[in-house]
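Subject: sequence -> structure tokens, single chain

Hey, anyone have a minute? Need the predicted structure for the following. Not urgent.
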Amino acid sequence: MKAIVQSPLYQFQNDITKVFTKTGTHILWQLKPKNNADAVKEASLYYFANAAPLYVALSPSLVSSLAAVDLRKQNWTAPVTVGANTWYRAEKYKARSNNSTEYSIIFRLEEAYLLLAESLARQNRIADALPYINPIRQRAAQPLLSASISQQVLLNEIVSESRKEFFTEMGHRFLTLKRFGLLSNLMQTKPNWKDHHRLWPVPQKDILLNSNLNPQNPGY
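Reply:
Had a minute. Here:
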């Protein structure tokens, strides 16, 4: 990760309104739509307006975690009010027709920053970790973390920052929670979540071919 963040090929994007613009030098990997002028799939998947969402909306828990002054809430989410109810949609990708500015981002520099901050924090190298989380907070108009922060609080902040930064991006939340041993937190927003879902089942056809793969993972 350090080689990535130190590479002259990549530069942190300080303007939050340009994070999802395809020309950004903070983008390591992105996918072009099949046809020119097509919107990326995220632009339509998470979009709804003037009606209750048919498929998906941002969870109240996520929305409440974003402060009103957080520029991610202002620029990457949008409220939709119908009657007495208000939902929030993801608004990271904005070109829903005649798209000439956006590709689907898979991996951007901010992920490398937070992974490096996590690695350093786990070594209790607090001062070394802060330069990789504070730029993300600063861009979102959030207070910077100080060197007096404890190791555990810093790790908690990294989990929280990852959630606020990467919501609706390629399953980041699941992987972060799994890495931190926090997948049980999903029970708060996913009522069908079971603890054994942390692991996939071993395919039965593979077990039949090789009995040494037994026992099957718990819960399956």
